[in-house]
Amino acid sequence: MTTEESAARSAHIAKDLRDRAYSNRVSQGRLALAAGVSRSAVNEHLNGRTPIVMSVFLDYCDALGVEPETILRAAQDAARK
Description:
Helix content: over 70%
Distance between the termini: 13 Å
Oligomer: single chain
Mean pLDDT: 93
Radius of gyration: 12 Å
Number of strands: 0
CATH superfamily: lambda repressor-like DNA-binding domains
Number of helices: 5
Shape: globular
Structural class: mainly alpha
CATH topology: 434 Repressor (Amino-terminal Domain)
Low-confidence stretches: none
CATH class: Mainly Alpha
Number of domains: 1
């Protein structure tokens, strides 16, 4: 995997999580509580400014009611295009 593919995958994951939070009306505060991180950390993650560690990613997925593999597979597919 190239650096560009990795960056594209990370950006896609952040956007997917952000879009799902918006469409499900899940606030950044609620995601922060679910993942045990600050609201500002959620903002940084969802805007792609800082990487998301796996444990936090899994907590976000749980709070959004989505299977992690759904987001990861979509990011992988998008990075290949």
